[in-house]
Amino acid sequence: MKYIFLSRAAAAMLVGTASLTSMPSPAQIPGPQHVVLQQPGGYSIRVGDVRVTSLTDGSVPQNLYTLLRHTTRQNIDELLARNFQVNPVEASINAFLVEMPGHLILVDTGSGELFGPGNGGKLIDSMAAMGFRPEQITDILITHAHSDHSGGLVKGGQRVFVNATVYVGKPDVDFFFDRANQVRTGYDKSYFDIARNTLQPYLDAGRLKTFSGTEEILPGISATVHPGHTPGAAFYTLTSKGEHIIFIGDTIHVAAVQFPDPDVTIAYDQDEKLAAEVRKHAFAEFAAHGDLIAVPHLPFPGIGHVRADGKGGYDWVPVTYTNRDGN
Q1: Shortest CA distance to 59 belongs to which of 316, 300, 293, 317?
Q2: Which residues contact 289 (CB under 8 A, 6 or more apart)?
Q3: Residue 58: partners with Cβ closer than 8 Å, 6 or more residues away
Q4: Is 327 exposed, middle or buried (0-12, 13-18, 19+ CB in 10 A)?
Q5: Residue 252 and residue 246: Cα distance in Å, rounded?
Q6: Choosing a second label site near 195 at 20 to 30 A (CA), which of 48, 112, 245, 312?
Q7: CA distances from 268 to 21, 153, 223 (A)
Q8: Calpha distance 79→235 (Å, rounded)
Q9: Alpha-carbon distance 306 to 308, whole Å?
Q10: Considering only CA atoms, which of 241, 245, 238 is closest in space to residue 220?
């Protein structure tokens, strides 16, 4: 696999992360120390013949004391301290650009306008820094219909990616487009509002496609539904020349805590038990096969490998930073 540095500035590489779906206003949460404003941009690797670029949509602070489940404050603090972090942690928002013949593909779209000024919403600037415009995007793969993944689809209620077809797991559309499910499950109403507001314009334009189970949705790209975080949460696997990368959505939010203890869940999970089972099974598979994965909320660029730690947990091994020309 070839790694090519293509950004103007790589954002802070090894800081802790979390998810960003429905949350307290970032302005209400104290930020981490040592904050430096990064420039938008991306970091690219090659998977077979395909260039994959991680794009930063920004980051926001997350209060793990109020978000994490099946753990304690003491355990959170101890695990964060091992990673030279304190609560709250800064959560990256990563999207991924895939360049294939006849297709320019985004995996997730960041938060758009939904988190307010200064908190996410930097995807379009990051694309521009890499020489790409929204109208060039042909396909968008949404890992699940939460605000920090589908929020960038719209601006002012209008489609941002006017030439793109959006792919999303059918169970997410079925679940979030039916208000009765909110009453039945008690899942936060804002999730239902966000899913409808971001996906409906593409549905109305005939540019929303859904899938169930496992399907090949584009040449060399398969989608698989893994219900838990949301009913239609999906993995996308890109394969080229015998190499592959898996885009795993919000299978993990907080590296410092959930790698050593995969049973820890987060308030954003629609079904915590299923989400934990998906995570544990996926980590075991990734570690056993050495899979390259792309993760929205691990520190930018969010691309790397999972390694078993020999104690029942796992370690994160990010891709090696490379800044040179060459083959």
Answers
A1: 300
A2: none
A3: 93, 110, 111, 118, 119, 120, 121, 122
A4: exposed
A5: 13
A6: 245
A7: 7, 20, 22
A8: 27
A9: 7
A10: 238
Largest CA distance in the chain: 56
Burial class (CB in 10 A: 0-12, 13-18, 19+), 202: buried
Q: Give the pair of three-digit tokens for residue 249.
A: 């959505």
DSSP 72-126: -HHHHHHHHHHTT--SSEEEEEEEEEEEETTEEEEE----TTTT-TTSS--HHHH
For residues 98 and 52, is the Cβ–Cβ distance under 8 A? yes
Q: What letter represents residue 182's amino acid?
A: Q
Q: Which of 323, 252, 325 is nearest to 286 (CA)?
A: 252
pLDDT tens-place values along the chain, 327 residues long: 433 333 323 333 222 333 333 443 444 444 455 556 677 789 999 999 999 999 999 999 999 999 999 999 999 999 999 999 999 999 999 999 999 999 999 999 999 999 988 789 999 999 999 999 999 999 999 999 999 999 999 999 999 999 999 999 999 999 999 999 999 999 999 999 999 999 999 999 999 999 999 999 999 999 999 999 999 999 999 999 999 999 999 999 999 999 999 999 999 999 999 999 999 999 999 999 999 999 999 999 999 999 999 999 999 999 998 887 655
Please state the domain extents for the chain: 2-31+40-318
Domain covering 2-31+40-318: architecture: 4-Layer Sandwich (3.60)
- The whole-model pTM stands at 0.89
pLDDT digits (tens, 9 = 90+) for 68-98: 999 999 999 999 999 999 999 999 999 999 9
CA pair distance 115, 121, nearest whole angstrom? 8
